[in-house]
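--- STAGE predict ---
source: upstream dedup step, 1 unique chain passed
mode: sequence only
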Amino acid sequence: MSTQPPAEADARHAIETVFRLESPRVIAGVARVVRDVGIAEELAQDALVAALEQWPRDGVPDNPGAWLMATARHRAVDLVRRRENYARKLAEIGRSTETAVPPEEIADPDDIDDDLLRLVFTTCHPVLSPEARTALTLRLLGGLSTAEIARAFLVPEPTVAQRIVRAKRTLATKDIAFEVPYGPDREARLGSVLDVIYLIYNEGYAATAGDDWLRPSLCEDALRLARVLSALMPKEPEVHALTALLEFQSSRAAARTGPDGEPVLLRDQNRRRWNRMLIARGIRALARADATTTGAPGPYALQAAIAACHAHAYTYEETDWPAIATLYRLLAARSPSPVVELNRAVAVSMAQGPEPALVIVDALAAEPALRDYHLLPSVRGDLLNRLGRTAEARTEFERAAGLARNERERVLLLRRARGL
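--- STAGE serialize ---
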């Protein structure tokens, strides 16, 4: 424990920060004990309450994440023991010898000893809708608030809250095992798992809310899970493609923020700071995806190919924008999305000029999903600026800043507006 108790406000800030970072690991570790993700989240919240009571008084522990885990697991073990004691009173004496070894402790060579991965596969169970799977996993594994998940989905916050509550209730009532499935069940859940891992990575790569633009721990967790999946499923091209995409994206991390944590746009990044080892890993993973693909490339293969175009360019001007625009066109056909179309507009602007790109962006203004999406006016402002329509561009950047939930992005957008 620290020798000098910090001020109560400092302790509460430390608690909120640590819990946001550590709650996925705490929930995953506890879920393996209690076999119920809803109860696991409640026990993690109990540990948070205990921290709020003790840390302001006694000081922040030297290892606060371990403290939260130990507190939550202790309560989980107590809960399991109470259940076992009750069951033992009802069961015959001889039955206890039949269940002396819990199923999760029996070694299985095909098992993955990773609680976070078990949590992903459990929350991606087919009994849940695709929307509920992603929302629940982002809540439990990503540690995101309901508002942040709603932002990622571009849907109302109450909708996400209902999905999460119903998903936890469904997993409990259906008695879904906390495990990594095998055989056909694993294949069936793979697509949803990949989507969830990617969304978690994106929240770390560009946080939707808060004071920091990057949340590296989320990126690290997502990349680690993708690498584990690649080793587990060597014949699945989209697994390798997602891993390649995350390797490429992670390679830029050091160059994406300035000295004070402010965002640095792609065109302004010092590419000498890009991690060439991660780029090489991405190239190898993309090659494995290509080698195992038997049909048309999947959405992650196309996105990884786009990221590879950026990685191969030693300067912004050397980027193969026509190739990127073509890849985005294929991606839009493969996985239609207004966000993909907005990204395609950026590539078209670099390959063909701002005028055709502005046509695409203006057509997207009618999309309900993009009504409050700050990057739409941000992209439009950039295009208008390049066309010399400065006053309109300033208005768009100011509108984008008003919609941005992340403080770093908001400041950047206001700076761009003032710069005009």
